[in-house]
Structures are given as structure tokens and as C-alpha cells.
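User: Can you fold this complex?
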Amino acid sequence: MAPSAVESVSNLPLKVASKKTSSSDLLDLDLQDAELDGRVLKTFRCLIADLCQQFNGGHPGGAMGMAAIGVALWKYAMKYSPENPSFFNRDRFVLSNGHTCLFQYTFLHLVGYEYMTFDQLKSYHSSRTDSFCPGHPEIEHAGIEVTTGPLGQGIANAVGLAMATKHLGATYNKPNFPLVDNTTWCMIGDACLQEGVALEAISLAGHWKLNNLVVIYDNNQVTCDGSVDMCNNENVNDKMRACGWNVIDVENGSHDIETIVRALITAKTSQDMPTLINVRTVIGIGSKSAGDAKAHGAAFGAEDVANIKRSSGMDETKHFQVSEEVYEYFRAAKSRGRESEAEWHELVSGYRTKYPDLADEFALRMKGEFTENWEEIIPSKESFPTSPTPSRKSSGLVCNPLAEKIKNFMVGTADLTPSVNMVWNGKVDFQNPDLKTTCGINGDYSGRYIHWGIREHAMASISNGLAAFNKGTILPVTSTFFMFYIYAAPGIRMGALQNLQQIHIATHDSIGTGEDGPTHQPIALANLYRAMPNILYIRPADSEETAGAYIAALKAKNTPSIISLSRQNLEQYPSYSSRDGVQRGAYVFIERQNADVTLIGVGAEMVFAVDTARLLESKFGLKARVVSFPCQRLFDQQPIEYKREVLQYRSTAPRVAIEAYAVNGWERYADAGWSMNTFGHSLPGKDAYKYFGFDAEVIAPRVSEFIENVRQEGVENLRGEFRDLNNVSH
Amino acid sequence: MAPSAVESVSNLPLKVASKKTSSSDLLDLDLQDAELDGRVLKTFRCLIADLCQQFNGGHPGGAMGMAAIGVALWKYAMKYSPENPSFFNRDRFVLSNGHTCLFQYTFLHLVGYEYMTFDQLKSYHSSRTDSFCPGHPEIEHAGIEVTTGPLGQGIANAVGLAMATKHLGATYNKPNFPLVDNTTWCMIGDACLQEGVALEAISLAGHWKLNNLVVIYDNNQVTCDGSVDMCNNENVNDKMRACGWNVIDVENGSHDIETIVRALITAKTSQDMPTLINVRTVIGIGSKSAGDAKAHGAAFGAEDVANIKRSSGMDETKHFQVSEEVYEYFRAAKSRGRESEAEWHELVSGYRTKYPDLADEFALRMKGEFTENWEEIIPSKESFPTSPTPSRKSSGLVCNPLAEKIKNFMVGTADLTPSVNMVWNGKVDFQNPDLKTTCGINGDYSGRYIHWGIREHAMASISNGLAAFNKGTILPVTSTFFMFYIYAAPGIRMGALQNLQQIHIATHDSIGTGEDGPTHQPIALANLYRAMPNILYIRPADSEETAGAYIAALKAKNTPSIISLSRQNLEQYPSYSSRDGVQRGAYVFIERQNADVTLIGVGAEMVFAVDTARLLESKFGLKARVVSFPCQRLFDQQPIEYKREVLQYRSTAPRVAIEAYAVNGWERYADAGWSMNTFGHSLPGKDAYKYFGFDAEVIAPRVSEFIENVRQEGVENLRGEFRDLNNVSH
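Assistant: Here's the predicted assembly.
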């Protein structure tokens, strides 16, 4: 990769005031004794080598190569408070190359995060279950803003964190009261620049001109397979510039702390664009594997660790050496943090005097709470249409008043505004205020409607950053066709893993989506989300259940939800459907005493359950109960007594689940299924259903026959012989 | 977006010989009567408007805007044979903006693809189940190279198709015998340039210098939400150049057929890089919604359709008008196709004389077959190690001799060469032959080992293109950690939908992967792939079963497979395990007459089933059978008698499935599960298992208790009350 011209950062004054906030942001760049700097870097690198060597594993090379960057960040550039890691206006740091986590853990230790003791550092890769040093950074631990590891996710999260600052700043800041103006710093390696989700996020950050975002590229040109030029020869700097980024080169990233600091400050004070700092480093510097892929993901071996220490002028017979001098080097971090906090609290206090209402609202947002009585904003059952309505439309009826009134909502779509019905009265787009679009729809950073473009993965992963800025302050609501949440799956999973509340509005579910055909008709995707820990996949059957789905999603403060909706008109069942029922995952929709069968209806396919029940009664003289089953996870959380009541486990009547998805998983609740065994087909929705046997006239006789079989064979023999009743295949 | 300088294509000679092949490639660019050209374009556009209007739906705008591009392609630039759509050395055309499928269907009709009758064209969006005109192009229909629709997939497929040409050419072409030298043409819209998978694929195409790939960008600056500048303001041309692409601008893409043709020919004859032709067009040109998002995804309404015809000088009262003149305009396509074919067959015939052995091999490859007796290449059970072995290592023992000997194999990894064990003796990398890497590992286009970089999604989606070039000619084998096949899921799904054989080697499955922690430990991903139609997800328990997994995958000629492997050492069970057993999905591993329980063991967790069985016997006096269950899909395909024999449905002994994944779906085969209810934890593999209760000492007493409960309650009451026995949670 040919580095382009190094932008000059050498003429900056050594005392640089941030353009943005208070005097605590003055960066006091005293030139340290260069030898002391060197000893600190060597201490850090030997410590990393030791920490990996003790259990013969881990990722030493990247962390060692990035040592000087870490000093520049934690000693000079970043605003943070080790004694209060959740200081609201702190800078956010994201380690997108999460495998180098020792880099972060070690700096947290050196600057004085209390929980990050030496003993804890040494728990990395140990069998200790009380370790705060997992193999990748995890959000649960102080100083870690987001969980990273899957490559490309962190930089997308960082874009979300930077957006959150822009948005909250535009909403609450006033002249002389910059309440929210922190910087987001993100480390990436060569890998993150290859992942599609990162490329999507980079494109968006450039589009939005997030000048508060600084991405530091640990450019060591090595990945697991060897040198990066085996699979990537693009001109990274030119590519970033084409995407609307500043680029600053740093040639000697292994040692030149001062140049790195100047670059960081230049980037932090960028007026117009996000900045990439392209820092040349050497992976595993000081080791025999320096600059080689071997330094990436394995300990160096005792001999080389001794060698590293020897050539660093340290005692090769000792392990885990950190002199007092090194702790002293970082000593000011705590007091600087305290000062930053104190100034900010003073600022907030003045703000409260001058803008009491806004200050109240800001305080509520800081606590991560919604406006009180939000549930009352949701339309009553009586107010919903009674004629057939697509549930994507019902969703708009529920969500749009919420989004209008609850400022926590940031709603967006992956370029499906006309399809997903998420636009509320007076919505403003989140945009750079200087943008002038061809179609004339503009916005500013206070806007809460996000045009993600056709970037489903970044939509989910950036939303994790929005949600992680301060839990509950922003509630990201994403939207696209359900099928394309398969693109977003890695991001959605990371949201679930991090306990981040979000709502994903997934329209056009099932084969009912119609003419677009099998590429657009989800068959197996629900299986992923129903099995995934800590996520609610909810398929409401009508408007009332859609209201219930939103209530469940809004109450799940530590859990993302997917609300899965129809493209097509759905029958409304005001006599049967219940928002409260949705909270329990499944409930009796139509009761019949001494029923011959229980039919389980789900979401858009409820109509087939209800119609089959009616036909069984009118034509076959059979009594069918109907259970609505919008959410398996919520049902699983109910007490056994409730489950038995709803599903009548001990009855001799069989249960049949009707859903136009793969049946896998329904075996827990049903004895038989009417489902999909293949991909879908391009046909108008109604015809697609018919083509695959979703038609009461086809279902009822088969169910009747099944009931008869069960009577003959004995219900006990159903155990373990789940029946796929829908043999229609093409 | 600021277009950069238009590269001059106006001075090209009008007769241009391809640098590559035979005289049939001479493009006879007779300047047509400009008025005739105009009438053809108008006819085409009115026809599109009519086809959408008849059922009041579909995507007219893009197809209309691209009309001149279509003429340039099908009349002038592309090599194809309407009478033999599968002519081996044809150019491949991919419609990455698949929603504009009417564009392709209509040109297939006009140039004489026999099956694409006018009657068929009119079946678009109809309820006809015999339609060959689904809402997005589908590979099953002649002239369609790959199924597209989910955005970004098509361009990745096109990269794969172009790689296939490069690879086969480098393998079989000889001086004066360019057997395989076709061009791949790919249409994209504004959306594809936003999707991460496309950006990954673009980066790779530039890296590999695929000069036989031409991407034509239908730059209409409109997507569903409005003008593209609402979400994308990057300089596309500069970005592509930074990725190693040529860029050619065409300003008047709506009408200027000649300039488009010149651009296509320039691109086709590129010596060094892939080419993007950036063509400015107007979506829905001629309609009242021209240039507006409204033209994208809805019919124009009868009034505007009449208006379009009127302003096109056509009879507004008539529908579906195609004059003889227009058919005549494309008449030469068939004869040109016949000539191309004839020349190529002559070439092959000469080649056969001169290179008989290679010709035989080439013929076998064309038929999509492997070397005969491939099964004998797989090591025997006796040759495998008997000491504990990671199944990722077993996989190498099986796959590497196959890859060495069967040239169909193209094996690659998303930057995990040291972890996935897929390198065989003498492997050559697929690389541009001019590449000189820093680490000194180079290659050429004949290479069959692919460094995908950290681009899992593109790896899968490009592999679809490799597999689709000519079914069976290339067998793509991908590899990464199982967890990161969540990034690749949209591509893997498209492979399954298209019946493309591929093998995905997914190492580091389950929590046994250890220290990397929950970000790297898959819990729910298997649920997606077990439910997805037409894919085999196979988790072998030891080396012998790994051999079985490869045999199943290699026999599944129309189905992709995922072979799911351990990072850690696994016990080997030569007395129990069976490659033949794997072919049936599940089989009896350890039989016991009158057993008290059946334990289902799966993959890396088989050890817990076997150890629990032993402990139940030695400590609890209970008899446990063990069933190995590597593949649910294969088991589902077995006759009911076999299933009953293996799982003993009618026995009173319960069945317990032991797997460190979400249990969803095991309810079909078991009465209880020992599984995961949460995400994983960062601990060494063995400790992670212990932490979550995977330990025979913990499992056996619970299973014993469960057996006792079942005896008391009666096995019939297990129906519908699946038990999660593993309550360990943290």
C-alpha cells in the first residue's frame, strides 16, 4: 500500500485547546524525557508478553505494536475519569480490533481504574470465573464502552457513539453550555478495513460528517495469513478520502508519541469530517516474530519473552515488572478526570438555572428513562381499524405517536421509508445541517429519523453504538424487510449479547410478501432469532397484538426485540386478540371446552388457524381451540401452570402449529405442524400461500384425518413422532 | 456526487477485436439509424410500463432507465447463444439490481431465447405457477446465471464468475487455444454500491486484477427513500480507483448507445484491472415520475402509461406493442451465437488433438464431475489417529488429499490459514501472477487456494459465483470460525436457494472454542442452518465421522454443506463411530438392550454423552444407549422405520439430547435437553464447558433423577413437556 503524503502536524502548538469544551480539555503536552517514554513503552510491551506467556495463549503482537498509541491516548488525548468510568461526557474509546484487549486492560490498570488490579490483569486467559479480562473486551466492565471481537463491529459501534454525541449535543447544547461534546476514538486493525460492515459504517460517517469521530488505524500490514498485501492492495487513504474522511499519516507509530499526540489533537479538532489516522506500527515489536503473522495470536515462548526483556533492558528473570516510575508517568490521569467531571457538573448546574425544563428532560434521558405514562400513548384497541390491515401499517399506528412524543426514539430505515410506515408527523432527518439533497429532504443533527441507505448490517451495528452511549438515553428503532435482517444478524446478535434495548421493525415477513419471490421470503430466519439468547422475536397477528408487541419490546430494557410484520392485509380479531396476551408469549385466542384439537396460529398466518377452526366445526363436526403464539421466548418464561392451561399438555387432543416458516422448534409446543419445507415462490401473496397449502380448505381435512389417526394410535404415541402435515411440495 | 473526467472512448475504431479469442468476438458496430435506435428504446420502455401496469405492480423505473445499456449489451457487446444458453464459453451476465428483472427478461425475449415467449413475459407478477418471470431473476431459467435480488449479492457473484474464467483459463488455455476467455458483465444500481458484501467483493476484484469483469453502474441517483445523496455522498469513481479499478464515465446513458458500446468494448479489452462503467441514467424515463423514487417500485397508473406511449409516438390505446422492426433489430443475435459456438467447438476439437489428456480432464470438468473413485482418496478409519484430535485437524486429514487430487476443489479461508488446517502439499494460491507480496507467498490464476481476507460475506457470495459458472466444474470450499458464518449467512442462503454445491468448513464451534469468549462462541447459529432449506449442517464427533461428513457433502451435488468442527481435542471413538452412519444423519453409537435412557451426543459434545452413559452405568446402575446425531436434515430423510429403530420412539425410556447450543429443534428427537440458555463465557474450553454444566459428573445425577421422574409420572406425560435439564446459569 502506497502511503500518500504525510499531512503536517509538526507545527501545531504544544498546548492545544479543544475547540469544543472546557479548560479541562486543554491538553498539557509536556515533552517527556524521551528515555522515560521509551522505558514506559518497553515496560508495557514486556508486560503484554508476560501476560500471554503465563497461560501460553492470547494475542500479544497487536497490543505491543500499539503501545505508543495507547500512551498518546490515555496520557494525553482522551477525556475520561478513572474514578468514575461512567462520567457522562467522557470520551468513548472503542477497540475494534478487540483481540488486542490486553492493550486496553493494561492501560486501564496503569491509569488507575480501581477494579483493574494487577491480579485481574493476570487473570487474562486463566480459568478464573471472576476474571474481568475476557479474551475480548466486554461492555459489562468499567471503561469498556462496547463488546468487540467480531471484526468490523467496533468501528460501526464507534460511528453510533459519535452520532449519539452529535444528536444529544444538537438537542441539548446551548451557547456556552456544551453539555455533550465528547470525542469518540476507535482503534482498528487491517482486518476491520476489510469487513463489509466497517465499509458501510465508514461511508455513513463520511456522509454525516461526524467530525467528532477519530479512527486510529494500527497499520501493521499483518493478519493471520501473512502480509496484508496477500488479500488487500487498495490505497486505503485515497479510499477514505473518497468516502469523505480526513486522513493523517504517522510514519513511526512504534515510538513517536509526540507525533501521534499531534495527530490525535488535529483529528479531535477537525471541523468538517471524521478522521482516519493511519499509523505505521510493527506487530510484536521487540520479539523475534516482529512484523510477522506469528506475533498475532500466540504467546512468544519463554525464550523469546526473555529475549524481549533483555533487549528492552529489563530483568529477563522477572515477570510482570512495572516500576513505580511507570505508574507515576500516568499519575495525573485521575486528577485530570476529577477536574473534567467537576467542570462538567458546574456546567450542568448553570444549565439547570438557565434552561430548567431542558435540564429536567436531559436528566431523565441520562437516567435512560422514557417520558412517564408512555403506555398511554399507544392507541387503544377500539381505535384500530377493524377492516383487514397490514401489520406493517398497524406498526406505524403504534410506533409513530411514540416516536413523536418520546425523544429517546431514534427511528431509521434501510431505504424502505415507503414500505415500513415509520414516518411520524413532523419527523426531522438526522443529517449534517449543511447537506442539501437533490430531492429537497434535508435535516440536522437533532433529527431522529435516520436514512441508513441500503446498509442493513451497519444499521444494526451502528445502532448498538447509539444504544451503548448511555443505556436507555437513545432507543434505536431500525427497519427493513424481515429477510434482510439476515444481513444485520451479526449486529443484532452483538446487541443481544450486550443487553442493549433496541427495536427492529421487520416487515414483509413470510411467503405472504408475495411477488418478490423466494429471495425475499424468509423461511428459516425466525429460527435464528427464536433460538438466540436475550432477544424477543414477536410476530403479532393483528393491530392489537402489534400494540402488545411494542409494549413487550419497550418493557424489555435489557433486550433487543424484533417485531415481525406483514406486507399484506391481515384480518383483525378485536374479539380475540389481546395486547396483554402478547406479554405472556402465547394465550388462548378462541376457547372450546373438550376440544378435539388445539390450533396454534402465529402472526400473519393466524387467519389460517381461525379459518381452519371454523371449517373443522362446520364441515367436520370437530371442535378446535385456537392459541395465538406471537413470542416463544416470552411464553417460555411463564410458569408451568400457565403453559399447561394454554397448551393443555395433558389433554388427549393434539396440537397443530400453523406457520409459513420452517417448523423447527415448534415441536416443543405442538404435536404436528403445517409449515414450509422448501424456499418460497414468486407469486402474489395469496397465491403463494395457496401454492404451499396455506388454505383452510386444504388444512382442515388433513387435520381432521390427523385427529382420527391420533385417536386410533393413542395420543401417547405422538411423543417423539412430530408430524409434518403439510406435504405440499414443488 | 461529482463525476470525474469522462475517459475518452470516442476515438476507438468501430470494429474492435477482442484481445482474447476468436473472430466471433469481432464486434460489428454498424452505426444504426439513430431514429431506429430511438424507436427500439421507446418500444422497450413502453413494454416495461405495460408489463408492470397489467397487475399494478413490479419495478418499472430501473429497467426503463437501463434500456440503452441493454441494447449495447445484447446487440453489440455480449457473447451468447440464444439457441444454446449454456454454451460453455459464453459471456456471463449478472443483474445485481435484480428487481429490474424485466430488463433482462425482455432482452432475452427480443434476442430469441425460445422459452421466453411473449406469453411468458406477460406472466410477470401474475398468479401463474408456470411463470418463468419471477419477481427477481432465478438461476433455474435459461439465460439467468445466478439468482439475484438481495442487494450486493449479484456483484459478488460476478466476481466469482470472473474468477472462474481466470482460473479455468490459466488451467486449460494454451497458446492459440483460449478455451475459456469469456467476459463477465454485471449491472448494479446505487444500492449495490452501499452494501458491505459488494464493497468486500469490489476490493477483492481489484486485488486480483480481474480484467475480465465489467461492472455497469446504472447511476440514476435514486433509491426508495429519495435521492441517493440523502445517504451517500462519496466519490464513487475515486473510491473504485482506490480499490484498483478502471473507471469509465458515460454521461448520456439514456440514449447514447454508441458511447455505451465503446465503453463496454474498452472495458472488455482492459489489460490490467476490472472496470466500472459509470452510466448516468434517468429512472422511469418518459414517465411523469422520471428521476423520482416513485418510479422505482410501483406501476405508473394507466394514465401515465398512456402518456408515456403518447410521448413515445406509440399508440396509447394498445398494449404490449413490439413491431417486427424491433425483432429484426436483434435478429443477428442467434446467428452470431451459432458462429461463436461453432468456432469454439472447432477450437476444442483442435485442442483435443494437441492436448488429449488435458482435453479429457476439461471434458470431465465441463460435465461437473470429480475424478472417479474420489471416495478412495479419503483416509480409512484405521489411518486416523486414535489419541484425542481436534476435528478441525481431522478435517485437514480428509480434505487436503482430496483438494490435492481433485482439481474441482477451490479451497479458501477468511484469513484463518493457521487455524483451519486446509493447506495441502503443493497448494498454489489464486493470485494475480504479477503480485509480489511482502511475506513472499505468491501465486497465479491457476492457484486453487484463496486468501479471502477478513471478508466472510464476500467469501460465501463470491463462492456462489464460482459454483454457478458451470455446475460442478468448481467446488468452492470456504473456511472460517463457525461463529463468523453469521456474517456469511446471506450468501450461504443464496447458495442453498440456487442448489449450488459447496462446502463450508466451520471450525471452533460451540463454547469449547474457549478463551475468545462469548463473541466467538456460537449458541444459536446452528438453528439457522438446521432450519434452512437445502443445506446440510453436519457436526461430526471424531475423525471417522469427519470423513463421513465430507462424503455426505461431496455426494450432495445440489446442496451446500457446513461441516462444523472443534478447535479442541476430541476423543476418538473408532469402535463406535461410522462414516456410513453419518450418511443417515443419526445412528446408534452404543447399543444397550432395555436401556433406561437414550443419550443423544452431537459433535464436540459426544464426550459428555459417552461419559455420562458410563457414569450412569457405574454409579447409578442405569443402562444408557448413545445415539450419535451429526445431521438433522439427513436423519429427517430416513424412512420412519429407521428413525424408530434409532430413537426408539415407542420405548418408555426417555431421550436426552446433549449439545452446547440452544436446544430449539431437538424437541423433535428428544424428551429433554442438556444445552445452553445464554451466551457463552470467556474461559479455557474445558473450563467453559464445566462453567455451563457440561460435565458427566453434573449431567449423570440429573439424568438419573429425570429417569426416576419419568417412571413416576409416566412417559406419556413427557409429550409436550420438553425438559431443559441444564439449569446451570450465570
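The first strand of chain A starts at residue 15 and ends at 16. Chain A touches chain B through 135 residues (CB under 8 Å).
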